[in-house]
């Protein structure tokens, strides 16, 4: 009840984390997600319903609303934001453990850099198709993410968009992550293993985490490239034919932007975001200047549309 848990990403894994940790009695949840809800999310994102989708709510405040219905005594701090080197200190400050609900390795390396530098435990998790993986990270004690994966995966990787994902594996991975987080909060040592599961074949494997690598960029040399912002690029979103643009902070007046765009196409807006439909694309713009351009995975096209309608 005295603990604070940060959940980065409120999608398939993170929405489960939020409900489970609230039901477990965690005193405060910090929820961070950059995206908004769509009908296809309901297949695997456990906390939401069709009413949330109809309102086109961003995931973080939608999750916060449901958490308050589950446990009114749980304090919830929701952020409709992309976790970046510029805001991670402010958002995650004071948390006791971080749960990974991300869909990309750039953000995971950022979390790892922050966690190692601030000595905050976190639990890595990922799922695609019927396969999932879980690994707790205890700074100064266990190998960190950069020890185990010095570089992000190379080449074409399966994603929720190209390969799909079974909701059974997301709930299983998220449950294992929550169990590790509960142990950490209770002062019980978490498992020092990497767990992989395949719910389709029924195979579950565990291997001991490797020892910390003295030459590791992060926990060995203490060089925090992702925390220093050396790897910030636009990203394609997992499970979405979409690109996120957030290369600079530029607060926007969504009411003024709605009026500005009204002559150019259909515009919808609420307090959290503005949605604009320049066919065949769809743009969702947030108050911090971030935008998600749906209908392409081409960063060049996304940047061009942003410049055309929002400004360079």
Structure explained in plain terms:
By secondary structure, this protein is an alpha/beta fold. The protein folds into two domains: 4-208, Rossmann fold (3-Layer(aba) Sandwich), CATH 3.40.50; 241-309, TATA-Binding Protein. It is 30% helix and 22% strand. The protein has ten helices and 14 strands. An eight-stranded mixed sheet has the order 3-2-1-4-5-6-7-8, with helices on both faces. Strands 9-10-14-13-12-11 form a six-stranded antiparallel sheet, covered by helices on one side. A hairpin with a 4-residue loop joins strand 11 and strand 12 (274-277). Helix 1 runs parallel beside helix 3 and helix 1 crosses helix 8. It is globular. The mean pLDDT is 90.
Could you give the topology of this structure?
Elements: E1 4-8, H1 12-24, E2 28-33, H2 50-54, H3 59-70, E3 75-80, H4 88-92, E4 97-100, H5 105-118, E5 122-128, E6 131-137, H6 145-148, H7 160-163, H8 167-185, E7 193-198, E8 203-208, E9 235-236, E10 242-245, H9 254-261, E11 266-269, E12 274-277, E13 282-285, E14 291-294, H10 299-309
Parallel strand pairs: 1-2, 1-4, 2-3, 4-5
Antiparallel strand pairs: 5-6, 6-7, 7-8, 9-10, 10-14, 11-12, 12-13, 13-14
Helix pairs in contact: 1-3, 1-8
Search tags:
single chain; 312 residues; alpha/beta; Rossmann fold; TATA-Binding Protein; 8-stranded mixed sheet; 10 helices; 14 strands; 30% helix; 22% strand; globular
């Amino acid at each position: 009840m005295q603990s604070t848990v940060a959940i980065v990403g409120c999608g398939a894994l993170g929405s489960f984390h939020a409900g489970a940790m609230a039901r477990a009695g965690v005193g405060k949840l910090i929820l961070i997600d950059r995206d908004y809800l769509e009908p296809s999310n309901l297949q695997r994102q456990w906390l939401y319903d069709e009413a949330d989708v109809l309102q086109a709510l961003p995931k973080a405040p939608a999750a916060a609303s449901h958490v308050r219905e589950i446990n009114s005594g749980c304090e919830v701090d929701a952020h409709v934001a992309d976790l970046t080197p510029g805001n991670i200190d402010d958002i995650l400050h004071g948390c006791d453990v971080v749960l990974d609900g991300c869909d990309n390795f750039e953000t995971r390396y950022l979390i790892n850099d922050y966690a190692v530098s601030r000595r905050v435990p976190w639990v890595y998790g990922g799922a695609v198709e019927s396969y999932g993986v879980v690994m707790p990270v205890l700074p100064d004690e266990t190998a960190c993410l950069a020890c185990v994966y010095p570089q992000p995966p190379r080449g074409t990787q399966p994603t929720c968009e190209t390969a799909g994902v079974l909701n059974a594996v997301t709930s299983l991975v998220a449950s294992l992550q929550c169990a590790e987080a509960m142990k950490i909060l209770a002062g019980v040592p978490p498992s020092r293993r990497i767990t992989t599961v395949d719910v389709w074949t029924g195979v579950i494997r565990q291997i001991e985490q490797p020892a910390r690598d003295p030459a590791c960029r992060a926990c060995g040399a203490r060089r925090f490239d992702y925390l220093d912002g050396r790897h910030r690029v636009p990203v394609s979103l997992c499970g979405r034919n979409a690109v996120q643009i957030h290369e600079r902070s530029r607060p926007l007046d969504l009411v003024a932007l709605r009026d500005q765009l009204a002559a150019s196409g259909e515009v919808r807006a609420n307090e959290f975001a503005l949605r604009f439909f320049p066919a065949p694309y769809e743009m969702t713009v947030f108050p911090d200047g971030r935008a998600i351009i749906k209908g392409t995975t081409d960063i060049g096209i996304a940047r061009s549309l942003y410049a055309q309608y929002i400004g360079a």
